[in-house]
Amino acid sequence: MAVKPKVPKGVPYPDELSKIDYKPPQKGWMDTLVEFKPGTYCYGATIKNIKALESPNQREWSSKDKDWKLPENWREIFLEGMEDRLRKYRSFRLFMDICVRCGACADKCHFFIGSGDPKNMPILRAELLRSVYRKYFTAGGKYLGRIAGARELTYDVLKELWYYAYQCTECRRCSAFCPYGIDTAEVTIIVRELLYNLGLITDWIAGPVVNCYRSGNHLGILPHTLKDTLDTFAADIKTITGIKVEPTINRKGAEILFVGPSGDFFADPGTFTCMGELMIFHELGLDYTWSSLASEGGNFGFFTSNEWAKRLHYKIYAEAKRLKVKWILGGECGHMWRLINQYLDTWWGPTDFLEEPVSPITGTKFENAKSTKMVHICEFTADLIRHGKLKLDPSRNDHLKVTFHDSCNTSRAMGFLEEPRYIIKNVCNNFYEMPPNTIREQTFCCGSGSGLNAGENMELRMRGGFPRANAVRYVHEKYGVNMLANICAIDRAALPALMDYWVPGVGVTGTHEMVANALVMKGEKERTIDMRGEPLLGKEAKGDV
Amino acid sequence: MGTLFSFFVVIILVLIAWVGVKAANLHFLFGIIIPYIAILTFIVGIIYRVVRWSRSPVPFRIPTTCGQQKSLPWIKDSKLDNPSTTLGVIGRMALEVLLFRSLFRNAKFELREGAKLVYGSAKWLWLAGLALHWSFFVIILRHFRLFTEPVLFFVPLLESIDGFLQIGVPLLFVSGIVLLLAVTYLFLRRIFIPEVRYISLASDYFPLFLIFGIASSGILMRYFFKVPVVDVKVLTMGLISFNPDPKVLEGIGILFYIHLFLICTLFAYFPFSKLVHMAGVFLSPTRNLANNNRMKRHINPWNYPVKVHTYEAYEDEFRKFMKDAGIPVEKE
User: Considering chain A, what is the average pLDDT of its residues?
Assistant: First the structure.
C-alpha cells in the first residue's frame, strides 16, 4: 500500500515538482537576469554571526532584499580576491582557461536534473564566473567583450554568482565526467570565499561555524552536555542489550582518539549510528577516548573559506597530541573525510607525535593512513569482520531490505566504495544495489550537502535530491527496499525528509547502526528490538503464542 | 549570433588570403612571413600559458577519485581510475589523453512518464571527439612528408594505412574524411542539442569552422585542384631549414595559400583560446595527482598560520562544567 508523501511547507507536491522543463529559454543566459525563487535559497547570516566570522565587510543584510548594502568598492574587493586566488590555486586558473564547453557535464548535476534551470548545468555555473574572468583577466575578453564570452561584473551578476554558488553542493559529480577533470567545486568554493569577503554568507553555514569554533562542534554542544548525551546513549544500549558501555571523554593516554560528526549526537537516525560505534568499541575492549573539543569531524568552515576550514580543523591533531593518543579513528561522515583525505595533513601536519595506525585487535597496519594517522571506521570494522573478530547475526537485520547510498565526498574525493559494502553484506541478508549510473563514483548527491541542508530552501533540496530519490524508488519498487544506508551525517540528517517526500516508506540508517543490530555481544540479553526499539523479525509475537 | 560571427570571420580569412595573394601579390608575406609569425606565436604563447599555470601552485591534493581507493590489502583497488602511485597516475593520464577516458563515462538521462529518470549510453560525443583528435594527429604526421628529406620512415607506413580503402588516384586518405565528418558532427550537435547550443560561444564555433576550412581546402588541393607538390616541398623544406626560397612562391596555386593561411590562423589563435586544453589537460590537479594523501603529506607552499581556539582557552571557558561532569581537566 502506498504511503502518502510528507510534503514540507511551501514545497509543491512531488507530482507537481517532477514536471520539469529542460528546454533552455530563447534568450541567451547573459540576458536572463537571476530570479530569486522562494524555497531555493538560504537566508543571509545575522550580523552577530557575520561579526563572529570576522568577515572583512560586516553589516546587516538579507538575501531577500533587493539592496544588499554592499560596500562602495565591492567590485574591487571581488576582483582583487579573484586575482589573489588565481595566483594561489592552479586548479582555479586552469579551470577558468581550458573548458571547451563540450557539454558532457551539463546533465550530470542533480540540481539541473531536478530543476531544469540551465544555470545549474555545471558548465554554465562555472561560466557565470568565467565570463567575469574573461572580462577582467584576459585581453580577448577585455577588448572583444561579449563576443568573446566576457561580461561586466554588475550587481546583478554578483547576485547571480551568489544564488548559483549556493545551488551547488560541491559534490564533484561533474568533475568525474569532464574530459579535463574540471571541478565545479573548485569554482564555487572560491566564489563562496569571495562572497564571504563581502559579508555575503548564509546563516545556516555561519551559525555552525561560530558554534564549532567556540565549542568544538557544529551544534554548540558543551562538554557536560556531551557527557549527558553519551550517558543517555549508554542507558539506551543497556535497555536494548543489557550491557553497560562506558565511554570516556578527554582521557589522557588512551590508545585511540575517536572523532565523529556531531550530527550523530543530536538527531535520529544518526544517534543510532553513534550508539552502534559505542557498542563495537565496548565489545572489543578498545582503549579509546572522545574529546569534548575535537567533538566534530565535519567542518562548515569549508563552505565559507579555506581559512575558516583550516581554523576549525586545528583541534583534531591538537587534541590527539594533548591526550597523547597513538592514532585517530574517524566516524561516518562525508565532507569530514574529504577534508581528512585531501586537506588536514596539508594544513596541520606533519603528525610526528602520532604513530602509524595499527588495529589493536587484528594487528592490521593501516598503511594507507601512515601519514595522516587517521583511519575510517569502515576500514577498521571491515578489517575486524574480515578477521572474524566480530560475532555477527545478520538475521537481526532481516526486517530491513537495504540499499547503499555512496556519499559524494567519500566516493569522489577518496574512493571509499567497497569497505562499507563489505560491512553491509556481512551484517544484513538483503542488500540491493541501485542502478550503476547512480552509485559509486557516479553517485548522486543527497541534494543538501555543502551547507545547503537548511529549512528555508526545502524546494531546492527536494529538487536536488530527485535523482538520488529516483534511484531509491527504483529499488524500492523492484525489490521492496525499505532502508537507505549511508556513511555520512548530512545524509542521515537530509535523506529522511527526501525519502518521506519522494519515496515514503524508506528509512535512513548509518552503516554502523546495522552493525550494532547484528553484533552479538558477550553476555548480552536476548535481543527482541533493534537499535530503534522496533521489534526484530520473528520476535514480535513472542510470548503471545 | 556566435555561429554567424565565427562563420564570417573564417570567410573573411579566406578572402584575405585570396585578395592578398591574387590581387596584391603578397606571396612573400603569406608564404613566408605569416607562417613564421604564426609558429612563433604558437610556441611563445603555449609556453607563456603553461608557465603561467605552473606559477600558480597546487595547494591541496585534490584528485577526483573514480574507483576504489587503496586501503586494506584484500580490497582490490582501482589502479587507473583511482591511482595511488605515480605509475598509476601516468596510466590514468594516458587513458585520459589518448582515449578520453572520462568522456567515455558520458551518459544521458531522460525523464519519463511517472517522474522516472532513466539513464542511457551516450558515446557519440566521445567517438566524435576521439575521431577529430586522432584524425587531426594522423594528418599532421602525414604532413611530415613535406618537412623531412629523406621522408621519415613512418610517413609512408601511415599513408598506406590511411589509404587502406585503395580508392582513386591519388589514394583517398580516410583521415581527411573522418576529420570532416567529426567536425561536422560536433558542429551539428552544437546547433541541434538545445543545452549545448545554449552554452556555446563564438569561440566554440570558430575553431570548428576553421578546421573545416583547413580540411576541405586540403582535400580540394589533393584531389581536385592540384598544386605543384614539388614546389610546395621546396617551400616547406626552406621554411623548416630557415632558408626559404622565394622563387617557388609564385608558381603555387591560391588554394595552397588559403590552406596555409587558415593553418597559420589556427596556430596563432591556439594559445589564446580554449584550444589550450591540449596543454592544460596535463596540469589538471583532479587528474594528474595520486590519491595517496593519507600516505604521503602534500605541501601547500602558501600554508600560513591562522588564529585558532586553543584547548587552554576552551578549558578556561568551560572548566566548571567539565569538572562538574567529571571530565578531566588540565588545571584544577
Answer: 96
